[in-house]
From TrEMBL:
It comes from Bianquea renquensis. The record marks K69 as: Lowers pKa of active site Tyr. The active site is at Y44. Belongs to the aldo/keto reductase family. The keyword NADP applies. Pfam families: Aldo_ket_red. The keyword rRNA-binding does not apply. One of its GO terms (molecular function) is oxidoreductase activity, acting on the CH-OH group of donors, NAD or NADP as acceptor. Coiled coil: none annotated. Substrate binds at H102. This is Aldo/keto reductase. Residues 11-250 form the NADP-dependent oxidoreductase domain.
């Protein structure tokens, strides 16, 4: 549950690098499998497909938690409002459940004021940020009326960022993981393979279960229906406290994506 009382499913479905038609098919399949949390972004150029998949499903819109994001070229108060309207049009919906600032670019505080307006108008049921370090959050929170409800960041056993995780917990900001499997690189980690055998699960299920027990919302992405189903198989077992700690000790600050303090896009 988010700080405003909004329910956010702990397991979601990511759509990064999916083209429009693939996004439509995958989102429709994911919803039919039981996913109720769908993540996209203006920068993914597939909002139309995501929206079509949601509409063509048999599940009412209000039962789907839908996230999209503001891209880096659209920062500033007025530009953010226009960009949000364009996202709604592409998605074919009157509201989103979560709207995020995708990266901490200059003018992000002005953009945040637009997100606050969107939230007050009820067109985004929750608002937050993505790829914000602690200092980005502190700067934003010193100048905002409504604190971010989510920080979606790269998170996996090789990149935990415990100080940021602790800060978010202390301020009721939900930690959310993108690239939870490190683009597949975590699946061959010896400890993860060992635990998968011990629990009778797959490596991806071990990692995603670890995320959930860490209190981190996670949004794995796959266009394979077999993998999509596999990723859902994490609610019928629990990792021991010792194994949770062993996985945590894999942390080595290694990224698969860009550092939010050093990016040029």
């Amino acid at each position: 549950m988010l700080s405003n009382g909004k329910q956010m499913p702990m397991l979601g479905f990511g759509t990064w690098q999916m083209e429009t038609d693939e996004a439509k098919r995958s989102v429709l399949a994911a919803i039919e499998m039981g996913y109720r949390h769908i993540d996209t972004a203006a920068a993914y150029h597939n909002e139309e497909g995501v929206g079509q998949g949601i509409r063509e499903s048999a599940v009412p819109r209000e039962e789907i938690f839908l996230t999209t994001k503001l891209w880096n070229t659209e920062h500033g108060y007025d530009k953010t409002l226009r960009a949000f309207e364009e996202s709604l049009k592409r998605l074919g919906t009157e509201y989103v459940d979560l709207y995020l600032i995708h990266w901490p670019k200059p003018l992000r505080n002005e953009s945040w004021k637009a997100l606050e307006r969107i939230y007050k108008e009820g067109r985004a049921k929750a608002i937050g940020v993505s790829n914000f370090h602690r200092h980005h959050l502190e700067e934003l929170m010193a100048d905002c009326e409504i604190a971010p409800m989510v920080d979606q960041i790269e998170f996996h056993p090789y990149l935990v960022q415990e100080p940021l995780l602790t800060f978010c917990r202390e301020h009721q900001i939900q930690y959310e993981a993108w690239s939870p499997l490190m683009r597949g690189r975590m699946l061959s980690e010896p400890l993860i393979v060992e635990l998968a055998k011990a629990y009778g699960k797959t490596p991806s299920q071990i990692i995603l279960r670890w995320d959930l027990q860490m209190g981190v919302v996670t949004i794995p992405k796959s266009s394979s229906e077999c993998r999509m189903q596999e990723n859902m198989g994490i609610f019928d077992f629990e990792l021991s406290a010792l194994d949770m700690k062993r996985i945590l000790q894999l942390d080595r600050g290694e990224r698969s994506g860009s550092d939010p303090d050093h990016f040029n896009f």
